[in-house]
Specification:
- The chain is an alpha+beta fold and 81 residues long.
- The protein has one domain (6-71).
- It is 22% helix and 28% strand.
- The protein contains two helices and four strands.
- It has a four-stranded antiparallel beta sheet with strand order 1-2-3-4.
- Strand 1 (9-14) and strand 2 (20-24) form a beta hairpin.
- The longest helix has 12 residues, at 60-71.
- The protein starts with 8 loop residues before the first strand and ends in a 10-residue tail after the last helix.
Length: 81
Amino acid sequence: MPKVKKERFEFLDIAADDAVKIRDRIFGGVADVYFKRSGAYCNTCKEDMCEHILYALTVPVVQKEVTRKIKAGWNLPDPDT
């Protein structure tokens, strides 16, 4: 996976609906990244792989949760690659 500059992004929280909230300082808003059984999705980019998802995969708490879901058979990007 390509490297993403962390200064652009800030991890805010994991919301009650399981959305990973990412502040994007260039976009000027908050992107919601979802990790569902069928894959990842960014509601800002309307994509299954984008810079918001790549950044989310660098956040330790998100890495831990995604790794747990992959082990349970979910089709998600591997945070270790």
